[in-house]
Amino acid sequence: MFAGDIGHYADVGRDALAWIRRALDAAGRPTPRSVLDLPCGHGRVLRHLREAYPAAELTACDLDADGVAFCERTFGARGIVSKADFDAVDLGRRHDLVWCGSLFTHLDRPAWLPLLRLFLRHVEIGGLLVLTTHGRWVAELLRSGVKQYGLASPAVARVLADYRRDGFGYSGYPQSPDYGISVNSPAWLLRNAGDFESLRVVTFAERAWDAHQDVLALEVLGT
């Protein structure tokens, strides 16, 4: 995620924290005492969460064991290496706040429900889940050819065709069918979020994180 631009790297982390704070304010929630960052990577956002909430217990979770170990050493987080099967992940406790930046963006629809179940198992009632998705802006970048996100042109065409028809499109990367690029319309996202009686939409903003990904904040009403 670093890609050689330290200024942008830091700005993206700060921007995530700003949206988390907006969500907490909108929900009327106090300073979180426990925070989960999944996927944590090497702490692009976690470093800002540690600074903003120095007394909070942080949990860093990712498939990248090296990134998890780095977050343990550097930010004092409780590190957990994730699993490809979200239903098999046990984080050992619930959290007041979950940040999930740029993971739903890489998953097809069948993987979204297991990921949401993982979060519902590990968020306190009244807690917040703040997540990001690829929305209309990313669809426009694909349509215009400005970005292809590592996909070949036929895969881009399939993603856009499905997006226009259903409000959701996905293609795996060439060597990774279960991990790739997803795009969803705001209507699709909010309709599906609304199907969960245990979740309340707190905030939604298009092209909000890094002027790129949409941000959705959900309050957990029950499990």
Low-confidence stretches: none
Biggest sheet architecture? 7 strands, mixed
Tell the overall outline. globular
Mean pLDDT: 96
Separation of termini?
A: 33 Å
Order of strands across the main sheet: 3-2-1-4-5-9-8
Search tags:
223 residues, Rossmann fold, 2 domains, seven-stranded mixed beta sheet, two-stranded antiparallel sheet, 7 helices
Describe the overall structure.
This protein has helices at 6-27, 46-52, 65-75, 109-121, 136-144, 153-166, 186-194, and strands at residues 34-37, 57-62, 78-81, 95-100, 123-133, 168-173, 176-184, 199-209, 213-220. It is α/β, with parallel strands linked by helices and 223 residues long. It has 2 domains: 6-135 and 186-220, 3-Layer(aba) Sandwich (Rossmann fold), CATH 3.40.50.150; 138-177, no CATH class. The protein has a 7-stranded mixed sheet, with helices on both faces. It has a two-stranded antiparallel sheet with strand order 6-7. A hairpin with a 3-residue loop joins strand 8 (199-209) and strand 9. The longest helix is centred in the N-terminal third of the chain and has 22 residues, at 6-27. The radius of gyration is 17 Å and the shape is globular.
Topology:
Layout: H1 6-27, E1 34-37, H2 46-52, E2 57-62, H3 65-75, E3 78-81, E4 95-100, H4 109-121, E5 123-133, H5 136-144, H6 153-166, E6 168-173, E7 176-184, H7 186-194, E8 199-209, E9 213-220
Parallel strand pairs: 1-2, 1-4, 2-3, 4-5
Antiparallel strand pairs: 5-9, 6-7, 8-9
Summed up, what is this model?
By secondary structure, the protein is of the alpha/beta class. The chain is built from seven helices and nine strands, in the order αβαβαββαβααββαββ.
